[in-house]
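Async update (no meeting this week)

Hi team, since we skipped the sync, here's where things stand on the single-chain job. The sequence we agreed to prioritize is pasted below, unchanged from the tracker. I ran it this morning and attached the output directly underneath so nobody has to dig for it. Comments welcome in thread, and please keep replies under the output.
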Amino acid sequence: MKVLAFEDSVNIESLLISSGINVENFQINQYWESSDFLKRIEEFNPDILLLDHYMPPTKGLRLLQELINSNVKRPEVIVAMSSASMANQAMLSAGADYGIEKFRLGELKIWAQS
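Output:
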């Protein structure tokens, strides 16, 4: 399973491992900033896209909106994973499948599907 994360402060692979998730069957790619996000999404073609909200230069909500309005293939699962619940709610309203505080990311059932 291919996982792409746009997260500027927390190592997502380490976070998942520390949450008890076996990442052996995951190909995880993380960007610590959001420049060229559509190109990066298109090239990696993730199954799961993880979006932080407060991430320079493009916030997660805007990234999500531009992705949805582009010709880039939508990942099967999009997760809003901001520390701010209002930001997650905004991304859910814009088309994210899940919204969760990033340190609870390992609680999502999507990891059991691999």
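Quick observations from my side:
The beta strands are 2-6, 27-31, 48-51, 77-80, 98-99.
DSSP finds four helices and five strands in the chain.
Reply here if anything looks off.
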